Amino acid sequence: MTQTTIAGPASETTPIAVGATAPDFTLPDQDKNNFHLEDYKHKKPVALFFYPLDWSPTCSKENVCFTQDLSRFSKYAEVVAISTDSTWSHKAWAEKMGLKHRLLSDMHRKVVKAYGFYHPAGNMGQRGTVLIDKEGKVAWVKVEADITKERNYSEVEEQLKKFS
What we know:
By secondary structure, the chain is α+β, with helices and mostly antiparallel strands. The chain is 26% helix and 25% strand. It contains 5 helices and 10 strands.
């Protein structure tokens, strides 16, 4: 059984502040391989793309775009997408949609809560982005006001360029 671990203070529905230390975590991906945030400290920035649900229209379109344009983001940071769906859902969805990036499963909602992206009405994560620098500090945060709208990829890329 894969265990989720979190270090650091949490405010479930208030996004983490820029400059804060990014809460460490370990989550399984669609292949049940663990992603541990701490492994990237002092090595590479990390882009966390939180999204609400596998299989939904906006999330499907957005994650297909991540895969198609992965090099657009991955040249600046390690890119992972996080939702509260299971590893099994992630695996089936990734295969159906041809997704090539890592989809992290936060079924216990610990990471979405630690980063302040919890959406209690839907018992899921919000759509948002957190960029973490090599030192493990939060460099940029953006929550999409309308959960049904895609994030602005150009805006994310502009922020990622600051890491180079």
